[in-house]
Amino acid sequence: MGFSKNQTATPNLRYIPLSYSPADSQASALRLILTLNPDWEGPENKIEFVRFTEGITNTLLKIINRKSGLTDEQIDQDAILMRAYGNGTEILIDRERETTSHALLASCGLAPPLLARFKNGLLYRFIRGKPCGHEDLTTPPIYRGVARRLGQWHAVLPSNGASAAPVEDSTISDIEERQEEFEVIQPRCAGPSMWSVLQKWVLALPVSTPEQRARRLGLQKELQWVVEKLDDGNGIGENGLVFSHCDLLCANVIVLPTGDKSTSSDDIAPVNFIDYEYAVPAPAAFDIANHLAEWIGYDCDYNMIPTQSVRRQFLTEYTKSYIQHRGLDASSEDEIVARLFSDVDRFRAIPGLYWGVWALIQAQISQIDFDYASYAELRLGEYWAWKREIDGTRQSSGEDMPLREQRWAQEA
C-alpha cells in the first residue's frame, strides 16, 4: 500500500528543455516522452496518449507504450504521467514548491517517483487504481483507508514539508508589495503554510471596482480574525503544524487494485493520494476538516456532511495510524481522538473560506466551463454560517440552522 522509497527529495531532477503545447498536444508530448525514453522510438513501439484532465490548473496525460505481447498491468508498470501547467496558475500555485513536495513524498514512499521536469510541467510514474467519486468517500472501507493514509502523512513527513529541499518562498515578498489599505497577516510560524497561501490568494483578488475592493478588505479582516482565533499552535505535530495535502477531494484519492478479493464493510480499502499542488504545512485539523468537507462533492450536497459518530470513526482510524507511524504509546489514543475531534470542529468552516477565495480568483482567470462565481458564494456561505453559529447571531435572530451545520451537529 505505497511506493518504493527510491526517489530522494533532491533538486538533482532531470530537466528537459522542451515545452508541452495544448495547440500541438500529441506532437509536443511525443517529443517530451522520446527525450525521456529514447528506446520508445522504433517500429516495435506503439505509443498512446490518454487524456485525463485539461484546464487552468493543468493538463494531465497518461502515456503508454502498448508493445505487443504485454498485459495491461505490464503496460501500466512503465506508463508515465505528464502534467503540464495551465496559464496563470502561478497566481494560485507555487510550482517550485509542488515539485519539491512531490520529491519529498516520493522519498517517503508516499508518491510515485518523479522522472523529469520540463519547461511547463512534470513527468512521473503512473499509479494503477480507481479515482473516487464523492459518494465513495462516505463508505467505511474507503474513509477508513483515507484516515489511515492521512495519519501516516502527518506522522512521517517533516512538518515544514518541502524545506527538505528548500526553495524560496515568495509569498510574503510578493504580497508585501501589493498591500494597500491593510497589513498582511503574520502567522505564528514563519514560512509557507496554508495561512500564508490564503493570504496570497486574498491579495490576488480583483480590485477593479469599489465592490471588489470592499470585498477583498472584508475577506482580509476575516482572515486576520481566524488567524488570531485558530493559529494557536495547539494542534498535533510540531508547533501545531503537519505537512498536509490540503486538497483531498474525491478525485485525488485513488483506490488501489485488490485483485479478486471482495471488500466487506469492516475492511480498510488501500488508497493513495495524488496531486500535490496545494501541499503545504497546515494544522492537522484543517487537512482533516478540508477532506471531510469534500464529501459534499462539486455540487455541495450538504446531506453528505459526516455526522459526529462518523467523524469519531474517521478520527479513530486516523489516530491509530498516526500513533503507529509516530511511534507513540497506544494509551494516548483516546486523548488524541478527543483533541482532534474538538480541533476539527473548530476548523470545520475554514475550508469554505479557503476555497471560496480560491474560487473568486478562478472566476476571473479560468477557462473551464464551471460556475466558479456561484461555487465561491456556496463555500464562503459555509464560513459565514459557522461564524453566525459560534457568535450566536443565528440563534438570536430566530433563523433555522443551515443544513450543513445541522448535519455537523447531528450525533448519528
Write up this protein.
With 412 residues, this protein is α+β, with helices and mostly antiparallel strands. It folds into 2 domains: 1-126, no CATH class; 129-412, Aminoglycoside phosphotransferase (APH), C-terminal lobe (Aminoglycoside 3'-phosphotransferase, Chain: A, domain 2). It is 42% helix and 12% strand. The chain contains 14 helices and 11 strands. It has helices spanning 25-36, 72-77, 95-107, 140-156, 171-176, 194-203, 210-230, 284-293, 308-326, 333-346, 350-365, 372-390, 393-396, 403-409; strands spanning 15-16, 47-54, 58-65, 80-85, 114-118, 121-125, 130-131, 242-244, 253-255, 271-273, 280-282. The strands form 3 sheets. Strands 1-5-6-4-3-2 form a 6-stranded mixed sheet, sandwiched between helices. The protein has a 3-stranded antiparallel sheet with strand order 7-9-10, covered by helices on one side. A hairpin with a 2-residue loop joins β5 and β6. α6 (194-203) runs antiparallel to α7, α8 packs across α10 and α9 (308-326) crosses α10 (333-346). The two termini are 31 Å apart. Residues 164-177 and 260-265 have low confidence and may be disordered. It comes from Penicillium malachiteum.
